[in-house]
Backbone:
């Protein structure tokens, strides 16, 4: 165990979890050890940023909390994976949520901070994300901003066609690695872009769901044993839905080893999907055949989001194959590609390339959030954010990652607004000085130096907020803001990222938000938001202003049209008064997941 020389305490706390879910069994490929950054714990577990509260809302009971600092637990590196032990359930959600946060912080170059505004001011846990591993008896799991929590349900599998589950067995969503990462991603995305929860169009809710699926699926490629086994049994073609049998069938399939297997890396929440009677994983990284017209027909958030997921993974698998074509060719010439499996050494080498490519794509997706508009996110915006974020850190696209993304998005009819073509140069967000706004813009005086006292940090944050608000008001038109509306510096962060060349890149990103009251035909008044994401160099030079105009008649009309579509799809809409939906509710979207 590595020790921090400054504190004399461990650097990490190793904790075992299921790599997928209990339905995958107890083999090595379904167990992984997560090195959670060490921190002193209270029973729960309860750390600095997250706390597990094991309250069962359906049965009004608490389970005893797990103490990870108990010497017996510490000496054995946590508890062994178990379907029936509530203490392991608590360990699993704590470890997986911690790991998801760590990966986001690495990619973003800054800490994740929750934006919760509820709870008593004197509550020391007010700013912590709460996790309820047995929160309800239902086939559901969701993130709630109001509860400041991730709520996981449990339910009985169907009696018929339960897949690898026993008919009627209890299925715990808190034991699905995919579901935990999915819900954690919702919470983190809400902390990064609070107004992404605004329901402004068909892409907004679909993007939230798709992005959470993308992050959960990329996590599969960190599971080394499962990755190597899948590579061996797919001949290195990771996108294949089925894996070859362990042994070739001989005139039939007398034993399980002669049957093809489902590719575990491309399926999301296998146990949950089977327990609901679908006979398959809940969702997949591989969609249907690319159809440029599919988005015109897809309205349900998960269905629409699956098109975006398929585009991202089409690009990933294409980029991976581009990296390993020479290895596969050499393997064939050397006789390392047998009829049924790859040579173990070649499989290990391919797994290394797959994991590296997956990590780059996952980090690219996460970094794209800092290059996204502050609200009203569309799939086309995401493509532009992906291309810009990667271009900023890696100007030379030597592995053709960006080219693969552009081709995959184009094949699925995802059309960005405000571009002349699908070329990389056109997709990268334009800088304000490139749009005829009179040269470079600067916001001098921004200060993000570390302050030791809370009062000093608050004073520094207030000063930065005033400077950014003044900058937004003074340069409203250049930043895509409305000169007639007040400007609020909603968030601002310093980014510290290291490029492939080893050079540290320091930038500042901020959200400038505006509000516009809108009165609807029935007299109801709602507030619509607009604004701009602004990116500065360390010296205050403005690089990008990625905006959504709060006073745009086109945006308002699209919002009205979207609300009309929601009303038409609402059950019993003709018999009940319609209230415009302005915020997402994941508890409703995730029913049946």
Residues:
């Amino acid at each position: 165990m590595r020790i921090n020389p400054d504190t004399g305490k461990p650097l990490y706390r190793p904790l075992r979890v299921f790599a997928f879910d209990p339905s995958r069994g107890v083999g090595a490929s379904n167990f992984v050890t997560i090195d959670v950054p060490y921190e002193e714990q209270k029973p729960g577990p309860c750390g600095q940023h997250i706390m597990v509260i094991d309250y069962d809302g359906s049965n009004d009971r608490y389970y005893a909390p797990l103490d990870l600092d108990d010497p017996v637990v510490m000496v054995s590196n946590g508890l062994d994976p178990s379907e029936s032990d509530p203490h392991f359930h608590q360990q699993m959600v704590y470890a997986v949520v911690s790991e998801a946060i760590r990966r986001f912080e690495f990619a973003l170059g800054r800490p994740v901070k929750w934006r919760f505004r509820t709870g008593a001011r004197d509550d020391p846990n007010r700013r912590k994300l709460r996790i309820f591993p047995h929160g309800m008896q239902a086939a559901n799991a969701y993130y709630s901003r109001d509860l400041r929590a991730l709520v996981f349900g449990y339910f009985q599998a169907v009696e018929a066609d339960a897949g690898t589950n026993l008919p009627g067995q209890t299925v715990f969503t808190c034991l699905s690695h995919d579901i935990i990462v999915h819900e954690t991603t919702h919470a983190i995305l809400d902390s990064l872009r609070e107004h992404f929860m605004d329901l402004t169009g068909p892409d907004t809710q679909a993007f939230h769901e798709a992005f959470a699926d993308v992050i959960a699926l990329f996590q599969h490629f960190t599971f080394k044993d499962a990755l190597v086994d899948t590579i061996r049994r797919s001949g290195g073609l990771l996108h294949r839905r089925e894996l070859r049998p362990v042994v070739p069938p001989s005139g039939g399939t007398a034993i399980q080893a002669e049957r093809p297997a489902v590719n575990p890396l491309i399926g999301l929440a296998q146990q949950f999907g089977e327990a609901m009677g679908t006979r398959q994983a809940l969702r997949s990284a591989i969609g249907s055949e690319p159809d440029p017209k599919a988005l015109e027909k897809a309205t349900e958030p998960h269905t629409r989001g699956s098109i975006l997921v398929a585009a991202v993974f089409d690009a990933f698998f294409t980029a991976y194959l581009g990296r390993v074509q020479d290895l596969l060719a050499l393997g064939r010439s050397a006789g390392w590609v047998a009829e049924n499996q790859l040579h173990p050494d070649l499989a290990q080498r391919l797994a290394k390339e797959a994991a590296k490519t997956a990590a780059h794509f996952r980090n690219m997706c996460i970094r794209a959030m800092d290059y996204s508009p502050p609200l009203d996110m569309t799939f086309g915006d995401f493509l532009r954010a992906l291309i810009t974020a990667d271009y900023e850190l890696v100007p030379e696209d030597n592995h053709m990652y960006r080219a693969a993304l552009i081709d995959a998005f184009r094949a699925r009819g995802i059309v960005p607004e405000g571009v002349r073509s699908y070329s990389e140069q056109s997709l990268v967000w334009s800088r304000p000085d490139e749009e005829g706004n009179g040269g470079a813009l600067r916001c001098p005086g921004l200060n993000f130096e570390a302050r030791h006292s809370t009062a000093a940090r608050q004073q520094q944050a207030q000063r930065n907020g005033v400077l950014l608000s003044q900058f937004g008001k003074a340069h409203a038109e250049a930043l895509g803001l409305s000169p007639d509306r007040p400007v609020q510096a909603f968030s601002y962060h310093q980014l510290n990222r290291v490029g492939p060349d080893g050079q540290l890149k320091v930038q500042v990103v901020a959200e400038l938000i505006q509000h516009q009251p809108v009165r609807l035909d029935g007299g109801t008044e709602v507030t619509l938001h607009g604004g701009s994401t602004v990116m500065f160099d360390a010296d205050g030079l403005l690089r990008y202003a990625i905006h959504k105009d709060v006073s745009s008649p086109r945006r308002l009309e699209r919002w009205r049209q979207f609300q009309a579509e929601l009303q038409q799809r609402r059950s019993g809409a003709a018999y009940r008064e319609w209230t415009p939906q302005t915020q997402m509710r994941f508890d409703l979207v995730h029913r049946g997941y």
Remarks:
- The first helix runs from residue 71 to 75.
